[in-house]
Automatic annotation (TrEMBL):
This is DNA-binding response regulator. GO terms for molecular function: DNA binding. It comes from Rhodococcus erythropolis (Arthrobacter picolinophilus). InterPro entries: CheY-like_superfamily (IPR011006), NreC/VraR/RcsB-like_REC (IPR058245), Sig_transdc_resp-reg_C-effctor (IPR016032), Sig_transdc_resp-reg_receiver (IPR001789), Tscrpt_reg_LuxR_C (IPR000792), WalR-like (IPR039420). The modification 4-aspartylphosphate is found at residue 54.
Length: 220
């Protein structure tokens, strides 16, 4: 059973997410939090496997809570929940090690699938937000993540670069496997190897690395 904590300052969102998730036999919602401080305290008390974390909350925002949670409980998986208009803090949350992010209007299947994916060690990136992220990365052109290898020193194989390309298009493991005629287990292995070579933790950080280092071209 996968234990989930829902952190959002809007009661209707918390209740809606719990309703969505309650129908899945492998997922159990163990608690709610309406502030960043409560989110951290609830993680300490309940030790959930996955936290669905809103960013803009009072009394300690979700970004601060994400950093505190991952610093003390690195095995906990945090998924940032955001609106369609990208929050400034989302980028910092991903750099902090969040397992990905979804839109607040995610449907029940997408939400439960995200929980299952991150609980198994994967990451999630809403396909509807991928193109916007790409444009934003290109516009900002920040310095590469300090822990990641540079674009000229990645050591990735041609097949691993194919996987990076498809990840950057927002594809999940199933679609990547179909596109490259591979088994899903092979795709997972490639992603794990890519993370090790780039010295990053999540597939979202792989995408960030790719665009920050001009490994993947941005189409406008």
């Amino acid at each position: 059973m996968i234990d989930v904590l829902i952190a959002d300052d809007q009661q209707v969102v918390r209740q809606g997410f719990e309703l969505f998730l309650s129908g899945h036999p492998e997922i159990r919602v163990v608690g709610h939090a309406k502030t960043g401080v409560e989110a951290y305290e609830q993680v300490r008390a309940l030790r959930p496997d996955v936290v669905l974390m809103d960013i803009r909350m009072p009394h300690g925002d979700g970004l601060t809570a994400t950093r505190e949670v991952l610093a003390e409980f690195p095995a906990t998986r945090v998924v940032v929940i955001t609106t369609f208009d990208l929050d400034e803090y989302v980028f910092e949350a991903l750099d902090s090690g969040a397992a990905g992010f979804l839109l607040k209007d995610a449907d029940p299947e997408e939400l439960s699938s995200a929980v299952l994916t991150v609980a198994e060690g994967g990451s999630v990136l809403s396909p509807r937000l991928t193109s916007r992220l790409i444009v934003e990365f290109a516009r900002r052109k920040p310095a590469p993540m300090s822990t990641a290898r540079s674009g000229s020193d990645h050591g990735l194989s041609a097949r691993e670069m194919d996987v990076v390309q498809l990840l950057s298009q927002g594809l999940g493991n199933n679609d990547i496997a179909d596109s490259l005629s591979l088994e899903q287990s092979t795709v997972k292995s490639h992603i794990s190897n890519i993370c090790k070579k780039l010295q990053v933790r999540t597939r979202v950080q792989i995408v960030i690395w790719a665009y920050r280092n001009n490994v993947i071209a941005v189409s406008r």
